[in-house]
Design brief:
- The chain is an alpha+beta fold and about 45 residues long.
- It has one domain.
- It has one helix and four strands, in the order ββββα.
- A two-stranded antiparallel ribbon has the order 1-2. Strands 3-4 form a two-stranded antiparallel sheet.
- The protein is globular and about 25 Å long.
- It starts with a strand and ends in a 7-residue tail after the last helix.
- The mean pLDDT is about 95.
Amino acid sequence: MSVTDPVCGLEFDESLAIVHEFKDKKYYFCCNGCRKIFIKKPRKYKN
């Protein structure tokens, strides 16, 4: 299954993702750097 990183917009396979849960929703990141950016301002990237 394909997922999209909410920070950089990269589309990639879910098996390669770094997963982070925020308010009972899973977010998928291409790297720990994007995950850290998300954690600092998660509301900016909420769907």
